[in-house]
Amino acid sequence: MSTGNGCPECERWEQRFNELERKFDAIVKQLSETTAKLDEVSAKLAAATKNSSNSSKPPSSDIVKPIRPRKPSGKRKKGGQKGHQRTVRPTVPEDELQWLTQYSYEQCPCCGGPVTTDTDNPVSRLQQIEIVSRTETTEHQSLASHCAACDKTVVCTIPPEVRKAGLCGVELSSIIGFLKGTCHASLSTIRKYLLDVYELKLSRGQLAKIINKISQAIAPIYEDLLGSLRAQRILNIDETGHRDSGKRMWTWCFRGTGFTVFKIDASRGSGVLLDVLGEEFNGIIGCDYFSAYHKYRGLTDCSIQFCFAHLIRELRFLQEHSTGRTHGWSSRLLDAIREMFGVIHRREALGRRFDGELEDAAMEVLTRARFRVPDDKKARNLSKRFANDGASYLKFLTTPGLEPTNNIAEQAIRFVVIDRKVTQGSKSEGGQRWLERIWTVLATCSDQNKSLLDVLRTSLEHFFRGQRPPPLLPIG
């Protein structure tokens, strides 16, 4: 800026103005840089404060868990409370006892006189259970027989089921499979256990062969359960990472009615869903908001119930790390969701008014999600979800037996996560097949209230005889 009139006073004001303008531009630039750094630090701080209550992170990832305020409990004492029914272990019947030891005096401990057994007084009992740590070795010999009539010598063959079992019988093989599958034990740990407890020395190579036999024995059970997924009306699905010799893979969990199936695959995409469920699947899938489920829904006639727990955690995170309109919008939406579930919990008390109030509460959730959305990226994305998939979040309201969350799949997959942390994954394709089969049988045994050891024992007996094992799911 220049006046051009040669006035000294005007030139001083002009210089002063230019100096202030330069300072102002510098301050604006510094403020912009500071604001950008503050936004970056705020984003990093928000990411660092994510935990299982405001994100999809598992509870095990919470390094320092917040201390929950204790509810006032009065003078309640520890242990069983007054009126609580005592649980007493039932005694083993006498005909099932292996040993019976009785104690009685041969003479009176007071005066030394003769005594007789008094059968009128009740007997004091103490039953003690012990494990007998021993092994039994059976040698199977193939003997030759000579026929005098035809003058031939024939050798009787060892039964094929015995030869197929090899060094370790059904019971020992089942215990090895149980330790490997349920207890997350390594081959070295199993080897040490057998050596210390049973004085039985087996090589790691021999143990690996036994695990492979068990994997083949339970393979038909796994294939039957895998094939049963396509007929399910409701399926809850989740996935987690898996390592195979350092390579990143994925473990998929499919939880149906009364059974659970795991599948290890190199892909986390919708192709896995197509391989497992096919293009004709028309049931309902409970899952998180991962893109693979969106794509699979577009390729089939299936329906989706998106997990409400994931959504609530995202809204909590937005509420905790925002201010102004964004904080108010997320708070109001959380209040509407809380009120909707409150109506569900008051179903019996509401009686005939339940359907109407539930419909109003659900409509309120959709309205608040799309009304006066703040200019925040995360808030806009969440609002867009309700606009596009609001029906998929609220499908549980009109579908009997459908849960609003994907918790049952997440609960089933926790064992897999623990196993991954302990064993560091698998090292071959055979290891992948073993893990998905034993995890499936283990989880389904838990769903069906069956003993895994009994299932392994029965499967091996049928496998050694060349037969299919009985199914885990009830027929019909």
TrEMBL record:
Residues 175-432 form the Transposase IS66 central domain. It comes from the Bacteria. Residues 16-87 form the DUF6444 domain. Residues 67-87 have a biased composition (Basic residues). This is Transposase IS66 family protein. Residues 46-93 are annotated as: Disordered. The lineage of its organism: Bacteria, Pseudomonadati, Planctomycetota, Planctomycetia, Pirellulales. Residues 50-61 have a biased composition (Low complexity). Signal peptide: none annotated. PANTHER family: BLL1576 PROTEIN, PTHR33678:SF2. It comes from Allorhodopirellula heiligendammensis.
